[in-house]
């Protein structure tokens, strides 16, 4: 007899740590953004991250505000 219960995964369901269009990690972008005192608009202009599909834009915004470089939750497209 097999056990049909689903075991919870130790891996988060969502893990976001990069701009997929430019394949640049937030960990790589954060020091550049801090050194240049970039706003979100400047980060987009200089790196191109956040300027194509835009899915990473809320994470870039949060990265600039908090210093976090990895996210395990979905963020809204526009700040609340």
How do the helices and strands line up, and which of them pair or pack?
Layout lengths: L17 E2 L4 E2 H10 L4 H8 L9 H10 L14
Antiparallel strand pairs: 1-2
Q: Indicate the percent of residues in helices.
A: 25-40%
Q: Unreliable runs, pLDDT <50, ≥5 residues?
A: none
Strand order of the largest sheet: 1-2
Instruction: Determine the strand fraction and express it as a percent band.
Output: 5-15%
Q: Summarize the biggest pleated sheet.
A: 2 strands, antiparallel
DSSP summary: helix tally? 3
Task: Specify Rg, calculated over alpha carbons.
Answer: 16 Å
What class do helices, strands and sheet pairing give?
mainly alpha
Total count of strands:
2
Q: Quote the average pLDDT.
A: 91
Termini, distance in Å?
50 Å
Order of SSEs: EEHHH
Overall spatial form: elongated
What's this model, at a glance?
The chain is mainly α. It has helices spanning 26-35, 40-47, 57-66; strands spanning 18-19, 24-25.
